[in-house]
């Protein structure tokens, strides 16, 4: 069956049909998907059925897959490389309201770019829905290339060449979740990344920030914080945002180098939501924090 691509939003996002992602992909299919992700930044595949082995294999087709952070509670899934985007504990039961992992995971409801707090940040994320709640729990995406293009020239000149500092404890701190030990903090030191980048697959300029980014390096902290808040408000304006309403079997791929995303509220005390994600590493970002990459 031929692959077909249908754009879902005036600026970005496409639905891709005619491909079974559970099977090894031939080079032509991989190249079609890579071209599509470079163009649309977010790709939606419906009716997929991948077990965890197949999801990990899919991720590795597109790059090197880094394991997500370790959590206190241990990992529900078999592969350390698969991020558990669910509200379930290791016994497959709904997490308690005060569960540390739940409180940490609520940070996904702030606009962010996956693994931007790491020395090697995230490139392509692939999130697959096993169980979805009957209401709520959408995932929204914002187009950071279009948002950059729409900035006025003065702002573009101001932000050119700036670097930002990112930390997982910044985004968690925004929500008042500060319950992390010294050793948990020491394991994830702050990193820096450029605020404006050229997206490698398209040659287009893009913003790069999100809730892990606290401030601008070499600027007074509150001034840089305000600039980032302003840019986030601009970039997440309705015209740059697409909402994905999940169905079981959906697999959504997105490019973290030129989009932000966030989960939306749902009743996680009542409904199960089981999504699983792999994310490839952005090898270009190695040069942002060479000393940290060398140490890891
Ligand atoms: C993610 C994420 C949001 C959601 O998987 O990286 O941020 O809607 N998910 O669960
Ligand atoms: Mn995420």
Number of strands: 15
Secondary structure class reads: alpha+beta
For the record, what is the CATH homologous superfamily label? Answer: Clavaminate synthase-like
Main sheet summary:
7 strands, mixed
CATH classification class? Alpha Beta
* Residues in β-strands, percent: 15-25%
Query: What is the level-2 CATH architecture name?
Result: 4-Layer Sandwich
Which distinct ligands sit in these coordinates? Answer: N-oxalylglycine, manganese (II) ion
What would your notes on this structure say?
- The chain is an alpha+beta fold.
- 26% of the residues lie in helices and 24% in strands.
- It has nine helices and 15 strands.
- A seven-stranded mixed β-sheet has the order 1-2-3-13-5-15-4, covered by helices on one side.
- Strand 2, helix 1 and strand 3 form a beta-alpha-beta unit.
- The termini are far apart.
- The mean pLDDT is 97.
What key phrases describe this protein's structure?
296 residues; alpha+beta; Double-stranded beta-helix; 7-stranded mixed beta sheet; 3-stranded antiparallel beta sheet; 15 strands; binds N-oxalylglycine; binds manganese (II) ion
Summarize, please.
This protein is an alpha+beta fold.
């Amino acid at each position: 069956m031929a692959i077909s691509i249908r754009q879902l939003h005036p600026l970005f996002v496409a639905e891709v049909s005619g491909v079974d992602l559970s099977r090894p992909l031939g080079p032509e299919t991989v190249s079609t998907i890579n071209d599509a992700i470079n163009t649309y930044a977010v790709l939606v595949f419906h009716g997929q059925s991948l077990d965890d082995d197949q999801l990990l294999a899919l991720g590795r087709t597109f790059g090197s897959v880094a394991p997500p952070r370790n959590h206190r509670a241990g990992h529900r899934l078999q592969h350390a490389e698969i991020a558990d985007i669910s509200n379930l504990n290791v016994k497959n039961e709904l997490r308690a309201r005060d569960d540390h992992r739940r409180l940490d995971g609520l940070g996904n409801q702030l606009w962010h770019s996956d693994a931007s707090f790491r020395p090697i940040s995230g490139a392509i994320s692939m999130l697959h829905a096993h169980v979805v709640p009957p209401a709520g729990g959408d995932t929204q995406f914002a187009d950071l290339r279009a948002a950059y293009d729409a900035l006025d020239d003065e702002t573009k000149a101001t932000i050119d060449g700036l670097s930002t500092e990112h930390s997982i404890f910044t985004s968690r701190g925004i929500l008042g979740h500060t319950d992390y030990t010294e050793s948990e903090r020491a394991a994830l030191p702050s990193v820096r990344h450029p605020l404006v980048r050229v997206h490698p697959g398209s040659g287009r300029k893009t913003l790069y920030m999100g809730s892990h980014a606290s401030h601008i390096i070499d600027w007074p902290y509150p001034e840089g914080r305000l600039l980032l808040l302003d840019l986030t408000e601009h970039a997440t304006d309705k015209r740059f945002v697409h909402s994905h309403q999940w169905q079981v079997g959906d697999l959504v791929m997105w490019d973290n180098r030129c989009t932000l995303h966030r989960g939306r509220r749902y009743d996680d005390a009542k409904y199960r939501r089981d999504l699983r994600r792999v994310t490839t590493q952005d090898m270009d970002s190695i040069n942002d924090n060479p000393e940290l990459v060398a140490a890891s």
